[in-house]
Amino acid sequence: MIRRRLFALIALLATPAGAALPRDPLGSPMWEFVGDQVFGANAVVRFDPRVKVRFPEIAENQRAFPVEVDARDIPGVVRMVVMVDLNPIQLPLDFRPAEAEAFVATRIKLDQRTPVRGAVQLTDGSWLVSGGWVDAAGGGCSAPPVSRVKGDWSQHLGEVRGGLWRQADASRLRLAFRHPMDTGLVDNIAAYYLSDLTVTSSTGRPIGTFRFQAALAEDPVLTLRPRLRAGEGVRFDGRDTNGIEFRGSVAAAAATPPGSGG
């Protein structure tokens, strides 16, 4: 008994001091596990409705579920993360804005009913989090990509489409990549996905950097809002887990397309 108490005391003393994660208003059984991956030890984490996480309440297509994280009302955002608690791959997107607004939209895979969250880190290192539950039929991470079923994925691998539209406060950039985004959870198909992306202005100013995991939807689509100077376009430089590079540039169109939102 004395030995057991001694071991318990040693374990308590060895536990690093710091702020515990706040109680999850969504009641997720994976909140602490996923939070530890994102925030690390000793981080200050708060739930804040100013982090606007927009998505449909029901996933009509669990292979390509639209998510938008908008923290433009919060000053000092240096990092934005999408979290999917009950997915086998829980962190599809990690965005570090530079000369860009604190805004990102994309599509992700859902493997079951789950909380979907947006988390933003501020310049002081603290985190603000918001989100909600999504009803999903499941299987988004464990179903083979459509392009694999068709057999034409290799014919289109590396294709990129882009659009850039000027707005008064910040421009709007949309990039669409052809890639199967294999999760490694389908029999005989290894994990293979777009992993990194850097976006700069045409004059070399940093716009933002991304890290992706395979829970991003097949043929990933990204929307962000770069702060561009007169006459600037954008350049992008990405790579996948096989080392294939995705490079290109996008010139600005005259105005935002109808119904684009954000």
Give a quick summary of the entry.
The chain is mainly beta. Helix content is 12%, strand content 37%. Strands 1-8-7-4-5-12-11-14-15 form a nine-stranded mixed beta sheet, with helices on one face. The chain has a six-stranded antiparallel beta sheet with strand order 2-3-6-13-10-9, with no helix packed on it.
Kindly describe this structure:
The chain is mainly β. It is 12% helix and 37% strand. The protein has helices at 2-14, 31-39, 146-150, 153-156; strands at residues 45-47, 52-54, 65-70, 77-84, 93-97, 100-108, 114-122, 127-134, 160-165, 172-177, 194-201, 206-212, 221-226, 234-240, 245-250. The strands form two sheets. Strands 1-8-7-4-5-12-11-14-15 form a nine-stranded mixed beta sheet, covered by helices on one side. It is globular. It starts with a helix and ends in a 12-residue tail after the last strand. Mean pLDDT is 87; it is low at 1-18 and 258-262.
